[in-house]
Amino acid sequence: MTKSFFDKLCCPFDKSELSIQVFTEKENNVIHEGLITCPTCKRLYPIIHGVPIMIPDAYREAQLEKPFFIKWNDKLSLEAKASLMLEE
Ligand SMILES: [Zn+2]
Fold this sequence. Notes:
By secondary structure, the protein is α+β, with helices and mostly antiparallel strands. Helix content is 30%, strand content 26%. It has a 4-stranded antiparallel β-sheet with strand order 1-2-3-4, covered by helices on one side.
Protein backbone atom coordinates (compact mmCIF):
# COMPACT_ATOMS: atom_id res chain seq x y z
CA MET A 1 0.00 0.00 0.00
CA THR A 2 1.36 3.41 -0.91
CA LYS A 3 1.03 6.58 1.13
CA SER A 4 -1.05 8.19 -1.61
CA PHE A 5 -3.44 5.23 -1.42
CA PHE A 6 -3.68 5.72 2.34
CA ASP A 7 -4.63 9.37 1.80
CA LYS A 8 -7.76 8.18 -0.03
CA LEU A 9 -8.87 5.84 2.74
CA CYS A 10 -11.38 6.61 5.45
CA CYS A 11 -12.82 4.43 8.18
CA PRO A 12 -15.32 2.02 6.55
CA PHE A 13 -17.53 2.23 9.65
CA ASP A 14 -17.80 5.94 10.34
CA LYS A 15 -15.97 7.60 7.42
CA SER A 16 -13.52 9.32 9.77
CA GLU A 17 -10.10 10.38 8.66
CA LEU A 18 -7.55 7.81 9.74
CA SER A 19 -4.14 8.01 11.36
CA ILE A 20 -1.22 5.85 10.33
CA GLN A 21 1.96 4.61 11.94
CA VAL A 22 4.46 3.16 9.49
CA PHE A 23 6.59 0.31 10.85
CA THR A 24 8.41 -0.84 7.72
CA GLU A 25 8.58 0.62 4.26
CA LYS A 26 9.75 -0.63 0.92
CA GLU A 27 11.05 1.43 -1.99
CA ASN A 28 8.74 3.98 -3.65
CA ASN A 29 6.93 4.87 -0.42
CA VAL A 30 5.25 1.49 -0.22
CA ILE A 31 4.14 0.74 3.32
CA HIS A 32 4.85 -2.90 4.09
CA GLU A 33 3.84 -3.04 7.73
CA GLY A 34 2.05 -0.45 9.78
CA LEU A 35 -1.00 0.34 11.79
CA ILE A 36 -3.99 2.43 10.77
CA THR A 37 -6.14 3.74 13.59
CA CYS A 38 -9.53 5.41 13.59
CA PRO A 39 -9.77 8.24 16.14
CA THR A 40 -13.56 7.93 16.25
CA CYS A 41 -14.37 4.24 16.72
CA LYS A 42 -10.83 3.34 17.91
CA ARG A 43 -10.63 0.43 15.51
CA LEU A 44 -7.14 -0.74 14.58
CA TYR A 45 -6.38 -1.80 11.04
CA PRO A 46 -3.03 -3.54 10.69
CA ILE A 47 -1.15 -3.36 7.41
CA ILE A 48 0.32 -6.80 6.88
CA HIS A 49 2.55 -7.54 3.89
CA GLY A 50 1.40 -4.30 2.30
CA VAL A 51 -2.31 -5.03 2.67
CA PRO A 52 -4.50 -2.99 5.02
CA ILE A 53 -6.89 -5.28 6.90
CA MET A 54 -10.10 -3.27 6.76
CA ILE A 55 -12.82 -5.89 6.68
CA PRO A 56 -15.97 -6.12 8.81
CA ASP A 57 -15.37 -7.09 12.41
CA ALA A 58 -17.12 -10.44 12.01
CA TYR A 59 -14.61 -11.53 9.38
CA ARG A 60 -11.52 -10.52 11.22
CA GLU A 61 -9.39 -13.28 12.62
CA ALA A 62 -7.80 -12.26 15.89
CA GLN A 63 -5.59 -15.32 15.77
CA LEU A 64 -4.14 -14.32 12.39
CA GLU A 65 -3.54 -10.74 13.51
CA LYS A 66 -2.04 -11.67 16.86
CA PRO A 67 1.55 -12.29 15.64
CA PHE A 68 1.51 -8.84 14.05
CA PHE A 69 0.52 -7.13 17.30
CA ILE A 70 3.03 -9.14 19.29
CA LYS A 71 5.80 -8.26 16.82
CA TRP A 72 5.11 -4.53 16.99
CA ASN A 73 3.98 -4.38 20.61
CA ASP A 74 6.74 -1.92 21.55
CA LYS A 75 5.57 0.52 18.89
CA LEU A 76 1.90 0.48 19.81
CA SER A 77 0.51 3.50 21.60
CA LEU A 78 -1.18 3.02 24.94
CA GLU A 79 -4.44 3.85 23.23
CA ALA A 80 -3.89 1.10 20.65
CA LYS A 81 -3.07 -1.38 23.38
CA ALA A 82 -6.24 -0.41 25.22
CA SER A 83 -8.29 -1.06 22.05
CA LEU A 84 -6.69 -4.46 21.69
CA MET A 85 -7.63 -5.40 25.23
CA LEU A 86 -11.22 -4.40 24.55
CA GLU A 87 -11.34 -6.69 21.56
CA GLU A 88 -10.22 -9.72 23.52
ZN1 LIG B 1 -13.90 4.41 12.67
